[in-house]
Design brief:
It is a single chain. The protein has 424 residues and is of the alpha+beta class. The chain contains 8 helices and 20 strands. The strands form 5 sheets. It has a 5-stranded mixed beta sheet with strand order 3-2-1-4-9. A hairpin with a 5-residue loop joins β7 and β8. The longest helix is centred in the middle third of the chain and has 56 residues.
């Protein structure tokens, strides 16, 4: 790898937010550790070297592709066909949102294994202000041990990757729960079982590894996994990232595209407005300030008199403000269920579980904790992804809730999903 490829900055998902790394002459150094999950919010990104951005696991879908070794020259077309078959192919206007990586030839040397990374179309805020020179995915930025299931945290959520006997990542995914618990064990067992059925792996992983930020730091829930995986489970510090090659991913930056299209128009409008404002302000500044101060003084006097005369009414309003989070209709579970139900694409998507938590968390301030949990199954992956998209764009839910929706998992009868939203 040339010096130009080695020397670059890397934006990689960390435990709580984006981490900025620098690589110079083969030396990796952490420049900045943030709690920002939106790349657009990261200020002062260095421009001294090219920037590579690695997307987090929970914004990706991992697919495995087995093709005859005689068809390797058609690998790109076959990968595209697999993405389209799974219902994950995006419109051209979103850019290039999938890439494939050669893993190895199978033991019989008649088939070759490829891993396909599929990225969800980034919404505004997911990309930094200055577009990176290259993109890849976070599991391609680390060294993994052989025949292992490796678990680590990205943006406060646990994720995992499965590596083969050469340490190459063949599958990765996020967990449906935020903690290490029995559900995580079931997800691991189910995923490993599916990979065995598909002949992606020939035997079960030999070790289970949890990456932590500090040596000897045991995460909450470690005991649950230890009871199941016993001697094969261990804790290790998270390794330093590697510099992966720039992948084929090239998402369209909607924010940059819009700004570029409107820049000239805004500039001419701004110059005109500035000229008009200067002339207007010179004539009316003195009068406007005097009139504003007079009206503000009058309003304060009237407000003070009104409060003194209507103290009982003020106390009533204060009490209502305290009770508002518990009695307002927008927090009613039935209302929330109806709003969520509107996002279901059709009858081939069904909910098996719906939970709506509306808990008063501060009696003095009257604030609440709102949580929505939707669990169910769709006949195909495209419908499950469509439900995810509808929930993210719902005009009735999106202004009040933030959805954390991991990728759906394939079941015997379709695609299962568990979508969760927390109140903003």
């Amino acid at each position: 790898m040339s010096k130009k490829q080695n020397d670059q900055n890397m934006l990689i998902p960390g435990v709580n937010g984006w981490d900025l790394w620098s690589c110079s002459n083969g030396k990796i150094e952490l420049l900045k550790e943030t709690n920002k999950t939106l790349a657009l919010e990261i200020e002062s990104l260095p421009t001294n070297k090219p920037l590579l951005m690695a997307f987090p696991v929970n914004e990706l879908t991992s697919l495995a592709l087995l093709i005859p070794t005689s068809e390797k020259e058609h690998e790109k077309d076959l990968a595209l066909l697999q993405v389209e078959k799974m219902g994950l192919l995006q419109k051209d206007e979103h850019g290039v949102l999938h890439q494939h990586t050669y893993i190895s030839d199978c033991s019989d040397e008649e088939q070759a294994l490829y891993s396909i990374d599929v990225l969800r179309a980034p919404v505004e805020g997911k990309l930094p202000k200055k577009s990176p020179k290259g993109f890849n995915v976070s599991p391609r930025c680390f060294t993994f041990e052989i025949n292992a299931v490796t678990i680590w945290k990205e943006f406060g959520k646990w994720v995992m990757a499965i590596s083969n006997d050469k340490g190459a990542v063949i599958h990765y995914q996020g967990f449906t729960t935020p903690n290490l618990d029995a559900a995580v064990i079931e997800d691991i067992k189910f995923t490993v079982g599916q990979l065995l059925i598909q002949n992606v792996i020939s035997h079960r992983p030999e070790q289970y590894i949890i990456w932590t930020e500090e040596q000897g730091l045991y995460p909450e829930g470690y005991e649950v996994l230890e009871k199941v995986f016993t001697d094969t489970l261990r804790i290790t510090p998270k390794p330093l990232p590697l510099v992966p090659p720039s992948g084929e991913l090239l998402p369209e930056d909607t924010r940059a595209k819009r700004i570029s299209a409107n820049r000239k128009k805004k500039r001419s409008i701004l110059l005109t407005l500035v000229s008009i404002l200067i002339l207007g302000l010179l004539g009316y500044a003195g009068y406007a300030l005097w009139d504003l101060d007079r009206r503000a003084t009058q309003a304060r006097t009237e407000a003070d008199d009104l409060i003194e005369k209507n103290q009982t009414l003020v106390e009533h309003y204060n009490k209502w403000d305290e009770l508002g989070p518990l009695v307002e209709t927008k927090n009613d579970p039935i209302s929330l269920f109806l709003k969520a139900h509107k996002a279901i694409p059709n009858s081939n998507v069904r909910l098996t579980r719906a939970e709506f938590t509306n808990q008063n968390s501060d009696k003095k301030l009257g604030t609440i904790v709102n949580t929505i949990l939707l669990q169910g199954e769709a006949s195909d992956l495209a419908l499950a992804s469509k439900l995810d998209e509808n929930l993210q764009k719902s005009k009735e839910l999106a202004p009040y809730f933030t959805w954390q929706n991991p990728s759906p998992t394939q079941t015997k009868t379709g695609w299962g999903f568990i979508y969760r939203a927390d109140k903003k």
